[in-house]
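Service request form, structural biology core

Requester: graduate student, group of Dr. S.
Request type: structure prediction, single chain
Budget code: on file
Notes: please return the result as structure tokens.

Sequence provided:
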Amino acid sequence: MSGHVEITEKRAGAVDIITVRGRLDAGSSEKAEERINRVLDAGGTNLLINLCDLDYISSSGLRVLLAALKRLKRDGGALRIACNNPQILEVFTMAGFHRIFSLSSDEATALAEFAAGP
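Core staff response, request fulfilled:
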């Protein structure tokens, strides 16, 4: 079932939230990247990506997240990731991304961290 992904967007105050469900792999990473870039092109500077319902992430998916982080840092913004799936967190750890990204266990915690500042 490569490439099955559901992406939704919403806004909470000054934070854009993108929720990704399913699989973020080579078959779906382009769709995710387009949605993230659309939010950023519209002026989004605080982005929360909710991966709590993500079943699988590949290196293609990690690349999309890293590109978003680099763009936001360049533009003075912030990116936080909400994820409580042990398998996804293990991929982040194996790739060393747990040191690069601000990870929270759920969306509410990540939103609170935005409010608390950098």
